[in-house]
Amino acid sequence: MAGAQRRQARSSQGAPLRIKIPADCTNQVGKTVNDTKRFILQSEARYCFFHPLECSPYAAHLYDAEDPSTPMRTIAGLCQDYCVEVWQKCRSMFRYLSTDKQLAALENNTAKFCHYLSLDDVDYCFPRLLTNANLNHNLGLVTADSEGCLQLCLMEVANGLRNPVAMVHANDGTHRFFIAEQVGLVWTYLPDRSRLEKPFLNISEAVLTSPWEGDERGFLGIVFHPKFKFNGKVYVYYSIEVEEEERIRISEFRISSDDMNTLDHGSERIILEVEEPASNHNGGELLFGDDGYLYIFTGDGGMAGDPFGTFGNAQNKSALLGKVLRINVDNNDRGPLYRIPPDNPFVNDPTARPEVYAYGVRNMWRCSFDRGEPYTKEGKGRLFCGDVGQNKFEEIDIVEKGKNYGWRAREGFSCYDKKLCTNSSIDDVLPIYAYPHKMGKSVTGGYVYRGCESPNLNGLYIFGDFMSGRLMSLKENRATREWQYNEICMGTGQTCMFPGLINNYYQYIISFAEDEAGELYFMSTGIPSATAPNGVVYKIVDTSRRAPPRKCRVEPLPVKVKSRLVQFVPKEKLIIKTPTQPPRLRPTTKAPGRGRPIPEAPRATTPDWIEQLLDLLRNQNRLQTTTRTPTTKPPKPRKGGKSGERRRRRKKKPSVPPQPQNGAVRLMNRQARGRDRGRVEIYINGEWGTVCDDLWNSHAAAVVCRQLGFPYVVRATKKAEFGEGDSLNILLDDVQCSGQEQNLLECVHADIGKHNCSHKEDAGVICSHEDVTDTEN
279: domain CATH number? Predict the structure, then answer.
């Protein structure tokens, strides 16, 4: 629980006297409140034995820790009758359990003592909460909102990264983590989140990539050998150009003999190279399985529809593209650099490459092996992958030996190549889950959570979408073997209001990761370019239930550091909604029903007058980026004032409402007006039109949001996320803003009406009135 997490942060503040717990009671420590009472009073042999309640799922309530602005209790809240019993038998012990002077002063007064330890909400006092069915029946579930969206929080771990594509650990007991940037650098981080100034690996001169947003080439994968502690071997996957030919390369490096935090750059040995016929669909994952073999995940070679050969690369078992490969790299210091595992599925097929483990893959982006349920090991070794789709669907697969995963015959559950799809010899395996492109257009595979700190997440497969920024989860029903989908949202209200936690992240979800202890992370950026230092690594935290701190404590082995340390400085903030709502104009006609969108008025030569007025007011009264609420009152509406004012206005001749100014903008969500989000439409030379998303980014979005009176931009959207404005002309393309312009026309852009895009690329924004507050101490 969140309070336990906060309690854990203060674990250094121990009691002045350690009470010895008898051997027959020590096995109770670490169990949940459902297993045993975490505060046990015994009077046997004239001893009082106290077990801490800080590990209870309800620790936040018991210790009054929900509100970080109030002091946390040092003693859990007790029910009155139980407190009297405690006071009668053990009151003298509290002076050793708590440094609270006020509690000590009340030691000889039963009524005042127990009143001081009472809780306002008696349902949560101890031990009454143990028998409260309403409080205990959902302890194993993640908190969700009314629509089933799981409420989670984040902790910022690293920042300032250029497209962080991977984060791995060495599994050597040091609990270091290594973060790879697309440009070809890998950085070493210590458990306290400090970074070594000298990179672990720097092959940026060799790596093929570019500053273009969305370039799929570059440094793509890294994995430590499972026996790294003994052989010091690390494997990497990157793009390279050789004599004007693009390839993917898998290489082996060894750790430096002089520095455990640096690879020997001269030790590179090229294990495998595969020619890439196009610049996209490069794959990029490297994993070691429980069998000790190296798994390599390649893309289909690029372009649309896998056009290579009769049936494409993915269905051609004699090609290494569009495959999951499995090779043995052990004992390769002499002889071949890799060998073929004898149980590979096609070793006896003369028409297939023996490295092939599975096929029918389009472009699997991020895969992971399930560690298995912590106690039973159920699910251990399952191989999950996210496979990026073509035009309609993204999918999640569980990869098994020798299986065909359908591409290009099938995309998700849908037929892509109808002739191949109806061919019975394909015998393809369907995904465990697929989602349409209205939810996201580029899946990023994740992990099954098997960590310690957030027990309610155990068994949950968490993944995301690069384009939409959506976080998602799947949970297997063990009885039916079906997978249940739940979206993941950031916690609202007080859910994430604890030191070090935030509830927002950058849109482009690049990758997921596990640390050595099994905790889950993801990497994202606001600008998906290999040269933009906007990448952040986030740790996923479930505040609804926290594991006992003692249970999850790790003791990293010491690390010899020869490089200067760069201390971690968090930059992201917790977003808190402001308590007041922005002023609204009172309508003179009845408002539509709650939750129903207001349909767009038919287009005419004279635009709707109230929209003109709103646009005019927004342009005249732009809000500056500030956390304060405007103190001046907004101009009164032309209608909806006092009755006397309306009578006076009736005496005047009706005037033609003014035309919007050039550069005025509005937001449209499909065919309805959007309040804080929508497709951007701009008014230029007497007509409304759309903006193409070429070069569209958060700087341009900030200009639009500020025009509309929003001080904050959440993100810039692309690919007609809020629908296509196909009834309008495309007026702007190639918009490049610094973010300080008054409107989009002041930004650099192509000539008005000149463009090379369609309405499928209509740009949009999501704006916010929310305040951004740093809650860290």
Answer: 2.120.10.30
